[in-house]
Amino acid sequence: MSGAVTGFFALLLVGLIVCLALEEKLHAKKSVIAGVFAIVCMFFGAATGILPFDKVVVGSHPLVEHTAMSGEWVDESDQHVEPFSAPATVGDAHEENPVHVQGHRISMPVYIPGIDWGVIAIILGSSIFVDVTSRSGLFSWIAIRVTKASRGDPLLLLISYGVMTVVFSAVLNNVTAMIIVGSLTVVSLEKLGQRDKLLGFLLIEGLLTNIGGLLTLISSVPNIIVGTAAGISFVTFFIKAAPYVIVTTAATIWLGARLFHVKRLASSKERDEAAELVASFDENDGIESWNFFYFAAVTLGLFIVTIATTSVLPWIRELEMGFVALAFAGVMLVRYKSEADQFYKAVDWDLLGFFMALFVVIYVMEHAHVLEMIGVGLEKVLVNLTSETGDPRDATVLLIGAAAFSSVTDNIPLAAMLANILHALGAPETSRLWWSVVFGANLGGNLTPIGSASTLVAVTIIHKHNLHLSFIDFVKKAAPFAAMHIVLAVLYVLLILSWLPG
Is 347 helix (H, G, I), strand (E, B) or coil? Predict the structure, then answer.
């Protein structure tokens, strides 16, 4: 791969970011902008020969016991595959390549494996599930109950939903958490006549999804990648991450309340009026069928439990979270089987189209070695990777660099690449550099609206309710939060982390 080719594709990535920032001036939807760049990237990827156009092998399985061997493909006219040595991946880059047998070769468009269909399935399934469930009146019931508990006080409501967002993000997928909490927030604030605070609430919740994603080893894919490479156990991860999550959640809610002017009701008259207004709310309004209400409540509980335990459930873990989201959506659609198309119309296809196009762009960038170029650049500025705890300068550079790059690229391949670099260069398991990657990869999503799926979902909900928030506006409003998160993370990694057990 020549440096000129890599540099050219890096410029395309910069161009995509600039165009998304100028979305309103271009008068174009995000899906169209990303789609055009995906088409251009695919064309030049084919022209430069960097994309793999081989047939895809399906249905093969690895031999349990084998010695190093290689095999030959059979004639092109035959679909049957002889034993062959599979290429190394991130997880087995330093191990002997596994030998696979049987299977069939099929033709597949080169962009299909580039799209993270799991994320697409989660967004589609969760959106439909939440939309159908909301017809039962369940979300309105929950929102009114939470609103009554806050006695109509906006600050208490922000705290309640902020904590709920972090907890849901820790046990669910971030996107699912944002969709559920965002739906509840809209209902609550509209009931209270506080719609002017909706943008602030949704933005804060979007940022908190990435904070909650730090809480456990399985809260996000970068956590799993880095934690596995470093040999960090589930309990150790939780012990070391929890103090940061708690402090940063409180700081985010505090800063959000100040910046968006979310305050306690000052006078007794205001409190009495709010309490009287809240008392007049009837959580049973909108419940057309109590049978469907109870069914929706049980199904929502099962959905949350299943999503949270997908990685350990037999059979389900192989099907992954996307299947769970689509399956529960299908179950709920049975209730409205004769008018299911109405829910399909409500799906945000612009969001799904944007994600698919963005995944294709990132896929091409991986093959063009743009992400590898980022990793090499970071490697050159690091000082001492083999230190037992990690050089403080390296930890700082790695965390800030990972955050910056994950704000404009998919944090999953970035985390995998950085974990590979640390492993290859012999970083000890006790090194704080592993945690720099974890914090940077997760927190970078708060710098831009395309930095993470959950922040983009938050922006989508904001736009759905006719509130103005452009790319640049998001960056301006999120910058104080992102700066605080990263500064706290650097201080935490350098000063606190090594003192914690594990």
Answer: coil
